[in-house]
Amino acid sequence: MQDKPLFYLLVICCLAVVVILAIGIGGFAKGGEFNRKHGNRMMRWRLIAQAVAIAVFMLYLWVRGG
């Protein structure tokens, strides 16, 4: 039962990665000033969000398996 909140956190992390990725790809596809200003920043945020999501996933697996 204690893994339910961790599962919800994992879902939120995955959704955050998808949203950040969509914004980054959309900005890249559109080009222009937004992409020049924020393109690299969005991809850095995506990497950070992915690392957090993987860490939460590993913690979830550890809690479920233990």
UniProtKB/TrEMBL annotation:
TM stretches of this protein: 6-25, 45-63
Keywords: Membrane, Transmembrane, Transmembrane helix
InterPro entries per UniProt: Hypoxia_induced_domain
Keyword hit for RNA-binding: no
PROSITE patterns: HIG1
Protein name in the entry: Hypoxia induced protein
One Pfam family of this chain: HIG_1_N
Residue ranges occupied by any HIG1 domain in the UniProt entry: 1-66
Species this protein is from: Paracoccus lutimaris
Source organism, top-level taxon: Bacteria
